[in-house]
Amino acid sequence: MATIVFCSVNKAAQTATRRCLAAHSKRVSSAGDALSHLPSVHTLLPGARWFSRGTGVRFMSHGTAGRSGTARRGSLALRGAAAVTAAAAVTGLLANAQHFQRAEMATRVSSAAEKEEDEGTIVERCRGFMCLPVTDVGVLQARKGDMRTRMELMIMETQAEFCKALQEVDGGTFKVDRWDRKEGGGGISCVLQDGKVFEKAGVNVSVVFGELTEEAAKQMRSRGKVLKGKDGKLPFCAMGVSSVIHPKNPHIPTVHFNYRYFEIEEEDGTKQWWFGGGTDLTPVYINKEDAIHFHKTLKEACDKHHPQYYPDFKKWCDRYFYIRHRGESRGIGGIFFDDLDAPSQEEAFNFVKSCARTVVPCYLPIVYKHLNDSFTDEEKNWQQIRRGRYVEFNLVYDRGVKFGLATPGSRIESIIMSLPLTARWEYMHEPAKGTQEAEIMEVLRNPKEWV
């Protein structure tokens, strides 16, 4: 069992902490009723975990994409199955109206928890999802050890855990929209609009497969991929979970995350695979404590696998979420990586799992901290202007949007879900010197090191 140690946390902080943890403490128990206990698609479900685990990796390569059954370059120095802490889970919670205090969860993960993925039946895990997975449960059971199955289950769990946390703070209900793609696969879109806290909150899962279009293949080749199709055809499978949250209060930041997996089969039958993703924060106003909490939580997850992951992927994030035509970043960054195919498929997957499990502890303490902050019409107007920049980046530069629009049968509603309900463009707007608005512009034009 985990031991939670609160350091000088006042009553308000303890209440917020208990509320946050309670939403994630229930576990699925009985397996007897199988799928009969799956809820309707409009029900939010328990099943969250507030700890991280995984094998540490002392290796990183940005070389060619991984190939099944082939040797990979580099040497591995694996850390043993030692104690794995979950300090990131509840760090940075409120100690008073102004400051975070550290709430450390330190635990040695039990052997039963470490083996959960291997020993838990597919049916038991499905009971905690928003609805049935995209892939038929029978197919998932038949290929339980396959990476496609393991990744699909992981992204379904991430979706359910984040939706549950958001519903807990907002009080609203997610609409769960299951959709099919005639070319192969489909997805599950969970959207909350016009809530008490969130103007628009979307958490999507997609699992698609078929033939890669030449336009999509061209994008991948531009990143150094060597893709050899048969008769011009490239069978592929792509899956991921993605989310963008647009709060009503301008003092609560927008957050985005995306974690994904690709497989491509070449003409000789070999498969290329890689992972990608990241998490980043887009505040309207700079709060240094929020920025430090967010980045520190991500760093702790990265450091379990390689000490160079956080600094490298933080820089990558700053470069990627850059609006070139404006000369400014979209937000204050986080981590971003793509084409991750080393040191092995197992270790890359463990790293992605660790990142996905930071989503709630990265963001929810910040939401609770600013939940009752007052704001002016001028501050709301500035939020609308910054949202305009968000729209510009997503439509002009975002790789996921481009891939989705280039893939036949893609669901446009799910691709455009990342955009806010409202935004604003003012001609030649520039904040006055010395204002809080000018302060964040300085950070966006000159990215900072937060930890």
UniProtKB/TrEMBL annotation:
Its EC number is 1.3.3.3. One of its GO terms (cellular component) is cytoplasm. One of its GO terms (biological process) is protoporphyrinogen IX biosynthetic process. The keyword Plastid does not apply. InterPro entries: Coprogen_oxidase_aer, Coprogen_oxidase_aer_sf, Coprogen_oxidase_CS. It holds the Pfam family Coprogen_oxidas. It catalyses: coproporphyrinogen III + O2 + 2 H(+) = protoporphyrinogen IX + 2 CO2 + 2 H2O. Belongs to the aerobic coproporphyrinogen-III oxidase family. Homodimer. This is Oxygen-dependent coproporphyrinogen-III oxidase, mitochondrial.
